Amino acid sequence: MAILTIWHVYDSPVEAFRGILSLGVTLGSQRITVGLVLGAAALLYGSFVASSAIQTLLLEEVFPKRQVEPGVGLSISKLIQYSLILVGFLLALAALGVTLTNITILGGAIGVGIGFGLQAIVNNFASGIILLFERPIRVGDMIQLVDLPCTVKKIGLRATVVTTRDDAEIVIPNSDLVTNQVTNWTLSERRMRLRIPVGVAYGSDVPLVMRILKEIAESNLSVLHDPASSVLFLGFGESSLNFELRVWIKDFLDRFRIQSELIQAIDSRFRSEGVEIPFPQRDLHLRSLDESTTSTSPPPEFKHLRPGSEIQDEEEE
Q1: Please, which of 15, 41, 159, 296 could form a disulfide with 10 given CB 3.0 to 4.6 Å?
Q2: How many domains, in total, are found in the chain?
């Protein structure tokens, strides 16, 4: 603006500033100027800043004082953030002079784009809205994808970020979490039932085995007494009598530690009580056969042939 004033394009910097803002192009009956574009950009940027500030305020100040669950607070703050961004976008369009008719035309163009190649993006977006409203999966939940247990770290509109036990982060499209089967171990509560199969040798004292397993479960401090533990005699296996110890634990995350403790206690008690843990074994029975059928001597007419010579002589003939 100072240069334009020095060059005498405008008489003062204020007039230069107004002249720059009035520069623009005319599209049909609508004129879009630099001032309108800057105003729309400021509204859109302001909506982003305001939404981020409000989200931070809610998550760090309001929700902790109200003792709101982290997953619920994140869902509410995300919805407020996206709503403010949408309002800012509409205000920016209004600042540019875009009317409702033009917005309808723009929506039709976006619909055509969705029909041609944006189905996956829109599907993930809609799935993200479903996850935020229905909340079948929340931040901090322990879920299992096929055979991979992981913890939900962040739920976005397009994808959800989870972390594995090896501290690896996996980005999962939201549509996979909505349409596919996902096991959520901590949706309503964190306790779970732990099942430990046990096999003993044939001839073992069945009541003794069941009593030992019951005592081991009741003596472990990490095992819940309500619901009570149970021992089942499942049946006769190929090499063992099959039992199953079923216990309830308070936290899903402790399942491997408690399982290890119970198995060690079972092995120690079985050794002290003389209960044998079998291993797979097979019995081989041999029958005597007629000597004429078990003879390995070749017929007389083939004794003079070396290995492979019979086939070679036939090919020569």
Answers
A1: 15
A2: 3
Distances in Å between the Cα of 287 and the Cα atoms of 204, 284, 290 are 32, 10, 10
Half-sphere exposure of 190 (CA within 13 A, CB side): 10
Q: Whole domain around residue 86: which residue ranges?
A: 2-98
Measure the CA–CA gap between 198 and 232, rounded to whole angstroms.
Answer: 10
Burial of 145 (0-12, 13-18, 19+ CB in 10 A): middle
Angle at 176 (CA atoms; ends 170, 181), nearest 5 degrees:
105
Residues 154 and 240 grouped into a single domain: no
State phi, psi for 196 to the nearest 5 degrees: -120, 110
**Could you report the per-residue pLDDT of 287-303, keeping only the tens digit for each?**
766 555 555 555 555 44
Residue holding tokens 């090499």?
239
Q: Is the peptide bond before 227 cis (omega within 30 degrees of 0)?
A: yes
Scored b (16 or more CB within 10 A) or e, 25-43 reads: eeeeeeeebebbbebbeeb
Q: Residue 115 — pLDDT band, cuts 50, 70, 90? A: low
Q: What percent of the chain has pLDDT over 70?
A: 81
* pLDDT tens per residue, range 13-28: 777 777 777 777 776 6
In whole angstroms, give the CA distance from residue 211 to residue 231: 8
Percent of the chain exceeding pLDDT 90 equals: 26
Measured torsion, CA atoms of residues 17, 23, 24, 29, in degrees rounded to the nearest 10? 100
β-bridge partners, 198: 243
Q: Write down how long the chain is.
A: 317
108, part of any domain: no
Would you give the DSSP letter of residue 58?
I
- pLDDT above 80 (res 126): yes
The β-bridge relationship of strands 30-33 and 142-145 is: unpaired
**Amino acid letter, 220:** N
